[in-house]
TrEMBL record:
UniProt cross-references to Pfam families, sorted A to Z: Acetyltransf_1
This protein's name: N-acetyltransferase domain-containing protein
GO cellular component: cytoplasm
Lineage of producing organism: Bacteria, Pseudomonadati, Pseudomonadota, Gammaproteobacteria, Enterobacterales
CDD domains in the cross-refs: NAT_SF (cd04301)
UniProt-listed InterPro entries: Acyl_CoA_acyltransferase, GNAT_dom, Ribosomal_N-acetyltransferase
UniProt GO molecular function: protein N-terminal-serine acetyltransferase activity; protein-N-terminal-alanine acetyltransferase activity
Signal peptide region: none
N-acetyltransferase domain ranges (all copies): 12-166
Length: 173
C-alpha cells in the first residue's frame, strides 16, 4: 500500500464513494454536504503546502488504484494528533485496508516527537470502524449522546484515544 497526499486526481473517485447525505455525514461530519462540493474538496488539497502541518489528507493506493482516504490533524500546542475522515472504497471494504492505512498514519504521527496522544471520533453504529480502532489500540473514552442531527435521526459519537505510552508498549510487544 502506498500513501500519498490527496491530489486533484483523487477528487472524482472520492465523490463516487458516497450515495447519500447520511454516508457523507458518517465520513465527514454534519457540516459537509452531499454531493461533495468543489469548495469542500479544495480543503482536502492543500496538505502538502502546510507549514507546520495542521490537517493532512492522504490517499492510499494499491496497484495504482485509490482504495482509501484519511486525514491526520495536529494540535501542536497540546501535543495531539487526530485521525479523521477515514473512508475505504465501498467496493474494497472488508479487506483490512483501513487497518493498514491507519497503522501507517499512527506510526507517522508518533514519529513527531511532540505528539503524545492521537484521538478520534466514531459513530458507535459503525461496527467495522470501531473494531478496527480497538484492534489498533485505541481506548474508548466516552460518548456524546444524540449529538449529531442527520435528517430526523440523532446519532451518538464515541471518543477514542491512544497515548504514546500505549503505542510504545504495543510496538515493543
Amino acid at each position: 500500500m502506498q500513501l500519498t497526499f490527496f491530489d486533484e486526481r483523487d477528487t472524482t473517485v472520492l465523490r463516487s464513494w458516497f450515495p447519500s447525505q447520511q454516508a457523507v455525514v458518517q465520513w465527514a461530519g454534519p457540516g459537509v454536504a452531499w454531493p461533495l462540493t468543489d469548495g469542500f474538496l479544495a480543503t482536502l488539497l492543500n496538505s502538502a503546502s502546510q507549514q507546520p502541518a495542521t490537517l493532512l489528507t492522504f490517499t492510499a493506493r494499491q496497484e495504482g488504484q485509490q482504495v482509501a482516504v484519511a486525514q491526520l490533524g495536529f494540535d501542536w500546542d497540546n501535543h495531539l494528533a487526530c485521525l479523521c475522515r477515514v473512508v475505504v472504497n465501498p467496493q474494497m471494504r472488508g479487506q483490512g485496508l483501513a487497518e493498514q492505512m491507519l497503522q501507517r498514519l499512527i506510526d507517522n504521527a508518533f514519529r513527531q516527537p511532540p505528539i503524545e496522544r492521537i484521538e478520534l471520533q466514531v459513530y458507535p453504529f459503525n461496527g467495522a470502524a470501531v473494531r478496527t480502532y480497538e484492534k489498533l489500540g485505541f481506548v474508548r473514552e466516552g460518548v456524546r449522546r444524540a449529538c449529531v442531527a442527520v435528517g430526523e435521526e440523532r446519532w451518538d459519537s464515541a471518543f477514542y484515544g491512544l497515548l504514546r505510552t500505549e503505542y510504545s508498549a504495543r510496538s515493543a510487544a
